[in-house]
Amino acid sequence: MTDSRAAIATAQPEILRGEGLPQFEAITPEAVREHIPGLMDSLEDQLGSLEAELSQKLDQGEPLDWNAVIDPLQRLGERLRWSWGVVSHLNGVCNSPELRDAHASQQAAVVQFGNRAGQSQVIYRALEQLKERLSELDGTQQRILDAELRDMQLRGVGLSGAVKEAFNAASQTLAELSTRFGNHVLDATNNWTLRLTQSAEVEGLPASLLDQLAQAARQAGDEAATGEAGPWLLGLDMPRYVSFMKYSRRRDLREQLYKAHVSRASGQNGSDLNNWPLIEEILTLRRQQAERLGFANWAALSIASKMADSEQAVEALLEDLRSAAYPIAQQELATLAGCAKAHGAAEADDLQPWDISYWAEILRQESFELDSEALRPWFPLPQVLDGLFALSERLFGIRIEAADGEAPIWHPDVRFFRILEQDTPIAGFYLDPYSRPGSKRGGAWMDECLVRSKREDGSAVLPVAYLICNQSAPVGETPSLMTFDEVETLFHEFGHGLQHMLTSVEHPQAAGINGVEWDAVELPSQFMENWCYDRATLMGMARHWETGAPLPESEFAKLLAARTFMGGSATLRQVHFALVDLRLHSQWRADAGLTPEALRREIAADTTVLAPIDEDAFLCSFGHIFAGGYAAGYYSYKWAEVLSADAYGAFEEVGLENEEQIRETGRRFRNTVLSLGGSLDPKQVFEAFRGRQPSSEALIRHSGLVAV
């Protein structure tokens, strides 16, 4: 792994270095504006030189090999990925008006270069010639070559003239619109707060949430705010929003908060943060782009590079899940209404969306005597990390150790860790765990910092991952006490990180998550979530942060019993999102006389048991598909969940208490799913681990669905 001290000594501007761990503090908005244009010029010169060299060899009939074509292309792409990647990373975790403007000022040039490289006729001809010598390439190289050719086709290499110009202009516009969409959501989330001053307004809220709301109030200027006396500042970031909706007894405040959340960035109440026009423009441009490339729509284009065979195959899976989940979700809603009625609640006969989380928590506590909030003290972040690392050692034969101070960081909250095998470092990762509503976008994700590869001198570049979460920060002397959902989220993102970091593939284009079909990439992440319900794993890390007492066996039993609680509703929710995404990108047209929201509400008739309220503008904050990489691919979560549940089933079959077999199966999972990355078709990777093709039986069982 590159020594950060050596990186400091480099003479060139940090943003142009293109290797090693970034010196984040040096990548300022000014540096972005000053140095990215020079980087783009340099990359353009290198690309031109490569094209001239390849063209000469092609014209002279000189045979081309891997080293002459793929390797220099990879080095070009990696230099841009490293430099622009860290700018985009900081834009997500340290957002500021200045960095946002600097990012936007250079985005067009980055997109333009991507189009330029992706549409190079000379490079495409060279790749085609390389394909004629396929017998000289190993299986990994063949997959990489096929993917390069396919990606160039999808980037418009076959276009010319006015169609090519329109395609390139639309690519730039789409990148700009995506960034604007995400910025609108971040701003709308940050702009809304509600200051609570009366004890009656916080009735039912647990002490941990009161402390969190008081801390937010102190940060906003109420320096004397305390959890006991207030004032308390409510916001739309997930740690505050989710907990308030779950525990607040004030139905009027839950309604106010819910409506603010679902109407974010929709222009309601006169706000200039309005994503509706952006949504229509994005969908229209995507359809046009797909048609220029010969596809019927964006969904068809998207699925061309995925594991699923067709849109029809995706629809079939989603319909199987929908038909199984819908009646169960109806029963769950009726049960919630019965619970509310038993408590004499006025809303029992007219439950609204802002009632669901509250009554679900009441019902959960009564049905399983399980209080989600009361479990927080057993899940302090340091102990959860210890449990996660112990599981990784148990399954995959690795050791994880803290390396704080050995790597540059972008915020004091951030930690750095190394992964070792037999005392030899093989990878590293950053962990940025806490919510920072003012500067960090919501959600959780894994991204690449460094990708496994070899330098030109043959030395190894070890993979490094970014792991980003948004859980509650420590308050005073109290560490970050996690909800069980947050524990699952951390395990999920670490699963992505493991696939990135434990790859054995030497070619970076297929190392880790690279080259893995999008609808299979969630397999390791969802697989890791299952271990949160494994007795040895959970009981090994769940200890009270003050007393050290283990989680009572009775509480563990309740967690297991509650695993499928509201499972029909949870499945139906994901099916709704996936179908909306798929059909917006396949059926919606600007001239159809139907808005995207109207289409969404048509779909909701069969995929929700509680119709969206008038103020519901969920699409305006659906960042996965409008500001992320999931366009016509949100179904991937469910597609991959079939794979991940079946993979975990292999451990269940050998017996979760059978330590020898668990370790053996874990090593096999590492040597296939985590190791092979994009070097093989995911169907082959799964079969190498499981000995057969995937079955949905385990997912049905884990989800509590009777049948699909």
In CATH, what is the class of the largest domain? Mainly Alpha
Average of the residue pLDDT scores: 94
Write down the domain tally: 4
Largest sheet: 5 strands, mixed
- Our count of helices gives 26
Global structural class: alpha+beta
CATH level-two architecture of the largest domain = Orthogonal Bundle
Looking at the structure, the CATH topology of the largest domain is Neurolysin, domain 3
Q: Which word captures the global form?
A: globular
Q: How far do the termini sit from each other?
A: 48 Å
Number of strands: 9
Strand content: 5-15%
Indicate the percent of residues in helices: 55-70%
Verbal overview:
With 708 residues, this protein is of the alpha+beta class. It has 4 domains: 4-158, Orthogonal Bundle (Neurolysin, domain 3), CATH 1.10.1370; 192-264, no CATH class; 276-370 and 567-634, Neurolysin, domain 3, CATH 1.10.1370; 376-561, Orthogonal Bundle (Neurolysin, domain 3). The protein is built from 26 helices and 9 strands. The chain has helices at 4-8, 29-59, 66-93, 97-118, 121-132, 139-154, 161-191, 207-219, 238-247, 251-262, 276-292, 298-303, 311-342, 353-368, 381-396, 484-501, 523-529, 535-541, 553-561, 567-584, 596-607, 623-626, 636-654, 659-676, 682-690, 697-703; strands at 193-196, 232-235, 399-402, 415-421, 424-434, 445-450, 453-454, 460-461, 464-471. The strands form 3 sheets. It has a 5-stranded mixed sheet, sandwiched between helices. It has a two-stranded antiparallel ribbon with strand order 1-2. β4 and β5 (424-434) form a beta hairpin. α3 packs antiparallel against α4 (97-118) and α13 (311-342) crosses α20 (567-584).
